[in-house]
Design a protein that fits this description.
- The protein has two domains: 186 residues, Penicillin-binding protein 2a (Domain 2) (Alpha-Beta Complex), CATH 3.90.1310; 317 residues, DD-peptidase/beta-lactamase superfamily (Beta-lactamase, 3-Layer(aba) Sandwich).
- The strands form six sheets. Strands 2, 3, 4, 5 and 10 form a five-stranded mixed beta sheet that branches. The chain has a five-stranded antiparallel beta sheet with strand order 12-11-19-18-17, sandwiched between helices.
- By secondary structure, the chain is α+β, with helices and mostly antiparallel strands.
- The protein contains 22 helices and 19 strands.
Amino acid sequence: MTDTSDRAPRQLDQFTRRSLLLGGVQAAALGLVGWRLFDLQVMGAHRYGPLAENNRLNLQVVAPKRGRILDRTGHVLADNEQVFRVTITPAVAKNVGGVLRRVSRILPLTDDEIAKIVARARKQGRSVPTTVASDLSFEQVAHLNLAAPSLPGINTEFVLRRRYLGGAALCHVVGFVGSVERFTIDDDAVARLPEMRIGKSGAELGFDGDLRGTGGTQKVEVDARGRAVRNLDTVDPVAGRDVTLTIDSELQRLVGDRLQGAGSAAAAVLLDIQTGGIVVMASAPGFDPGAIAGGITVADWQKLAQSEDKPLLNRAVAGQYAPGSTFVVVTALAALEAGVLSPSERIVCDGEYEYRGDVYRCSKRGGHGSLSLHEAISSSCEVFFCEVAARLGIARLSVAARALGLGAMWNFGLSEEKSGLVPDPDWKRGNLSSAWLGGETVLTGVGQGYVQATPLQLAVMTARIASGRSVVPVLEKRDGISQFVPLNFGEAHFDAIRQGMAAAVNEQGGSAEEAKLGAGRPVVAGKAGASKIFIGYEPAEAPRYAIATVVERGNASAALLARDILNFAVDRADHAGGKSPQGGVFPTGDNTGKAG
């Protein structure tokens, strides 16, 4: 039996040792915690302080306001409107899909739409806000804000959306904006913003560098859900520059309506000869740029892009057409300059022209008989110009064509611009690996074969013939009258062609008689290429406008289309008190644009 008097001291001694051991462990643990706190708060302050600050502060990039696009009179063609938008920031939301499913109780989001937003958020990065929906109502925004505690990472805000006021009539020249492609945004924080849009076509693309502006920054204090509490520091963005075009939007709308009735595909360009300003650049069919900029489905975009009518194609600068008989003004000018033809020489047309065994037929069966240059232009005799082209040769013909603006690109603000084609032996050898044939020169002389031109090029060619100067097209408005240098052709040779063009419209039986404006109206000079292409200028005695019209598909006459457009233009100029589209005054006497 154990002695109880010995057990009590032993138990007390064991308890004391255990207490000391436990106390030592606790003291050591507290010491380690204290040392860690000291290390974090004192020794590591320089290291962890900024990290803690960054967890509380958020440096946000602020998108700049995009500049407006205006017409020559100051009418707004494209600007910005405020709309509500909701975004989600993956770094704050954690479970993006789960948060979006809760959002779908307020906004009409389908499972497929949620999946697309989640995928887009992964691509953009966890710290970048991803757009969930735009153009929200006040009621929807209010419900989202009330549900905010259960929607981490969700934020509602005002953003700017591009707005287009010109509709389909101005869609090609103004263009549209779209989101930024992933491959272009790696080093551009502004481009990563979900609201950022850049030009995709038309003036929106051509003047994008001016319209876009420069982004700013905003340091914001945020709460645990990533919501802004207060602004701490701001560097304001710089808004984009407004761009004023040479386009007359009211005249463009009239022309657009007229084009829609001209056929399933047509184009028209009207130039101010004094300045080179593009007053009208219309192409049909068109599209609604607002529907694209506001967000278009893949299916709708593919339908638009793959349409047989090609509504996205700006036919005025990207449609390339055989100029037909409108090209004979080039052939005539080159021949007069080369001395292989005189204005008074007569050539007999019996309805056919034979060249080295090949036969080329005139549009008039039985032929026109004996013709001078004046009569050949007026009646549009192909046989006459086949003979002239054969005498001339392709080298001199191609040089004259380029001098008049064919085969050229002016990089005036529309990236869709095409160069057309002025063929020659070097081109054929390089592209078709074959030698040039004499018969191809004959075809080129009457605007057939390989030669191609855009409506803009045809309008420039016409302006150069009308003025004798190197008119260059511009799309952005400039002050005053441009000083275009004289072309290196004889003035008498220009006059011979101008007189023939005036006769084509105004003399009885002229091949372009449909373009005549009527009694008391300015005299038009012009040239038709069958019924589908027309070039002209007015007034014939003091040129103000040059025009080119093309009816690609449809039964309308290009000359009639030009007549209506010129009538619109004359009425607009009269209403403006004789002011030119660029703000200058039209000449009232001799053609001041002629070479001296």
